[in-house]
Amino acid sequence: MREDTTFFETRGHGPRAVDIAVMAVLFLLAVLGLQDAYGGADYLLAGVMALAVGTIVALVGARWRWGVLRVTLATLVLHLLLGSTFAAPTHALFHVIPTLASLRELLVAPITAWKAMLTVSTPVGSAHGVLGVVWISTLLLSVAGMSIVLRTRRYALAWLFPLALLLVSVAFGTSAAVAPMLRGIGVAVISLAWLTWRFESARLASARSTIISDTVRPGSWRNPVLRRRVIGGGLVLVIACGATAGAQALLDPPPGTARFALRDTMTPPFDPDEYVSPLTEFRGYLKHQREAELFTVTGVEDGELVRLATLDRYDLQTFAVASSTERTGPSGAFLRTATGVDLHEASPAARTATVTIGEYRGVWMPTLGSRTDRIDALGEGGDLAENLYLNQVSQTAVDASVLGSGESYDLVYEPYRHPTAQEQDEMEFADIDLPPLPENLPAEYKELAEAAVGDTDDDYAKMQNLSATMQSTGYFSHGVDPEDTLSLPGHGASRLNAMLAEEISYDAEDVTAMPQGRIGDQEQYAALTVVLARSVGIPARVVMGFEVPAGSAGEATITGDDVTAWVEVAYEGQGWVRFDPTPEQDDTPTQPEKNKVEKPRPQVAQPPPPPAEPPSPPPGATSEDAPGEEEDPAQTSSWAVYAAAGSGPFLLLGALLAAIALAKARRRAHRRTRGSAAERIDGGWQELLDVRADLGRPADVLVTRRELAAEIEAELPGAGIAVLAERADRGVFGPEEMPQAAVDEYWAQVMDSRAALLAAVPWHRRLRGRFSLRSFRRRRALRRAAARDRQRLDARRESSRAQAEQRAARRGRGVPEPAQPRGIGRLLDRIGAAIPRGRTRIPRTTSTTSTTRSTQEDR
User: In which residue ranges is the amino acid composition biased (Pro residues) (predicted)?
Assistant: First the structure.
């Protein structure tokens, strides 16, 4: 810190201001890379203020010689004080004053903001805590970068921090770069010029030039050497920038490969499969909510269609809302979407509508038009701002918290435009891969579709013919009112199979029996038309929604009686075009009159619908709430299974700990009872060293027993370690073998010292040492060290013998008989002889040198 402070004090105000300005510009250029991801200017304000706060903290810390702890504490305090205004404005009081909710969001933002930034659909706006990404990253990197450039001479290290923020903008931005050429040239020019200036200033400050006056500062513009190099370098940069701008067309990568963004690899968090298909609730609106005011919508025209959900996956039971992990796939993906931001640039024809929820309940949000440009949550009636998901491909919006009464939101949308007659003649089906139909679909569907489409080559005419065929050959009936012709609900395989027959057939004897044939309402005709179209390769899907009733232009109240469904087909260049295959509502079949009989026949109960048509739960219910799914007792695990599964990890851990304790006990018994007296004495000493190693104090292999005993006695006086070390030396290296009684006495003293070592540490360290594996690793390390020492000794003996043979050969006397080595050779032979060739036994704490010394003294 002393060196850093001196550098800050000696560096002039001008160079210091240049350093701060250059770093600030580089940071701002990096922040601008998040423009497409955020949209609007809230992120830019958060980034500028984070940069200002970071610069102030770095300046104050450098001026008053703050350490890392103080700088970190100051950064955290300012983060909590100012973060509510710039990073969590949606939870702050009046978007400025901190609240408990905003402080809580600031505390969890370092963990949650990054995921929210990647899972919210762009532009992310300012909700969901996404501003924490630009605020936290700019604040932390600016504090670190500015502190380094102000306190040290490591300007190149400080320059890496703006580059790190640039990488953050690339990773958390979008695949579309923001002014890549201008920003890239700006970063390159500013960085190269500043790094060159700092390098030359440092070099000239440390050297004395004869052409520079002593009154001229090395970094001053009056310095001729520096001025000449700056002008020359500037000319080179101008030429390089011009050449780069001219070659931009050649340098740009192909579309779709220009940028990598982490958000393109994220899996959407909303799964529509967890919810019941809204199309199964079609008859429910007519039966239970026919007169209920579901919601009101303003700014609409008569007959305008309100979309509730788009369904493009059929499994022979229901049409469901499909989704994928690819946000640009045929079915799209449900992504968290911010309210109050422009999702698309609105065209001059765009309209604005306000939807206010009444008795409608569900996660599927009513929307309008062919594209949603903007959604604004109004009032404080719900959690729409935090739970909004939008599938841009299917234009299906979702409120994961379930829409409630009183919630209101504004929609900016593009109204649907039907293609003109000239456009219809040139339209072609789009080449997209919708979810495939089931493989066991009856062949009658394709045969009927081919006959209805006809021989025309006009793609629009094909779908028009199919839709007209359904209208002209079918009959309409909801089957809800007493005067309606009976018509089953649902759109499963059995229901649609019954509609393949064009003629309506009745039971001649029982007019109350269900008629067979092509009869139904919008639910059945839309589903049947889509299945027929898809069977011949036409990309079609079902849309469920509501129709604005006649005479309700401007402000309409939508009831359950306004429910409807239609078909959309994808065309190149036109998008999704709507078709209505449902017959007119007054086109109903004529039922035969009831035969007059003297005695009325008892009414026979009709068989229930096929299993594929389960009763429908209330709107918005999840699939887990569907009735009729009773729990199978055979599949319910007993308490014993759960207990075994829960206790399994604990039993495994207990078995492992017991195995460790058993291995240590077996090792101790083996040392005490096996081998010669010297081996058992050495085993007692090794037992003490293992206990000490398990307690976290391993012994040095290059320390003798007496040296180690002195070290332990200094820490734990009265443990008797010194006496044990002396007796171990005598027992291992002594000329006579110790009697059995002496060995038993030695081991008794070892156990007493072992107990003293364990009693000297806290209970948790004793418990941890009991199951530690350090002592096993210590023995392996000792064996490896002994093997290396033996190899070195053998190598030196062979080298000495080879040198003696070479000297004898040069003298012409041939290869002599092995002579007795002298000096160091004799010493090496004795050391080698002292090491057994078989099972090596070397005390852990006795080094090769100490072993040699003890052996020489003994001999």
Answer: 605-620
Quick count: other Cβ atoms within 10 Å of Cβ 581? 25
Query: In three state form, how does the secondary structure of 758-822 look?
Result: HHCCCHHHHHHHHCCCHHHHHHHHHHHHHHHHHHHHHHHHHHHHHHHHHHHHHCCCCCCCCCCCC
Strands 334-337 and 120-121, bridge-based pairing: parallel
CA distances (Å), origin 793, targets 632, 824, 833: 76, 12, 10
Angle (nearest 5°) at CA 314 between 308 and 315: 135
DSSP H or E segment with residue 101: helix 100-119
In sequence order, what are the residues at sequence separation of 6 or more whose Cβ sits closer than 8 angstroms to the Cβ of residue 689? 699, 708, 775, 778, 844, 845
Distance of CA 496 to the CA centre of its chain: 43
Residue in this structure with the two tokens 């509730």, named with its chain if needed: 308
How many whole angstroms separate alpha carbon 313 and alpha carbon 161?
A: 48
Q: Cα–Cα distance between 450 and 438 in angstroms, integer?
A: 18
Distance, in Å, from the CA atom of 859 to the CA atom of 848, rounded to the nearest integer, reads: 16
Q: Give mean pLDDT, residues 40-61.
A: 91
Q: Return d(Cα 148, Cα 163) in angstroms, integer.
A: 15
Return the number of other C-beta atoms located less than 10 Å from residue 73's C-beta.
Answer: 12
Q: Which residues contact 191 (CB under 8 A, 6 or more apart)?
A: 26, 159
Half-sphere exposure of 228 (CA within 13 A, CB side): 5
Buried b (16+ CB within 10 A) or exposed e, 653-688: eeeeeeeeeeebeebbeebbeeeebbbbbbbbbbbb
- Indicate the pTM of the whole model: 0.52
Beta bridge partners of 408: 356, 378
In tens, the pLDDT along 831-855 reads 555 554 444 444 444 433 344 444 4
DSSP-derived secondary structure letter, 178: S
Asked whether the CA dihedral 756, 760, 764, 768 is positive or negative, the reply is negative
Contact 704, 846 (CB under 8 A): yes
First to last CA, the chain: 60
Phi, psi of 125 (to 5 degrees): 70, -140
Stretch among 145-149, 225-229, 484-488 having the lowest mean pLDDT: 225-229
Query: CA-to-CA distance for 323 and 331, rounded, in angstroms?
Result: 5
Contact 569, 459 (CB under 8 A): no
Element containing residue 96 per DSSP (H, E): none
Which amino acid type is present at position 634?
A: A
How many angstroms separate the CA atoms of 468 and 476, rounded? 14
Reading the block at residue 857, the tokens are 């003294």
Could you tell me which of 842, 813, 848, 816 has the C-alpha nearest to residue 830? Answer: 848
Q: What three-state secondary structure class fits 326?
A: coil
Q: Quick one: 130 exposed, middle or buried, by C-beta within 10 A (0-12, 13-18, 19+)? A: buried
Q: What tokens were used for 2?
A: 């002393």
Evaluate whether 375 touches 392 at the Cβ level (below 8 Å): no
Do 445 and 500 form a contact (C-beta atoms < 8 A)?
yes
Structure tokens at 489: 């609900």
Q: Which of 473, 713, 716, 732 is nearest to 581 (CA)?
A: 473
- The answer to whether 720 touches 753, Cβ cutoff 8 Å, is yes
Q: pLDDT tens, 589-605?
A: 766 554 444 444 444 44
Tokens 């599949």 correspond to what residue? 635
Q: Token pair of 395, please?
A: 């234009």
Is residue 139 scored above 70 in pLDDT? yes
Give per-residue pLDDT as tens, 518-552: 899 999 999 999 999 999 999 999 999 999 998 88
Return the closest-CA partner of residue 783 out of 701, 715, 710, 856: 701
Question: Which pLDDT score is estimated for 129?
Answer: 79
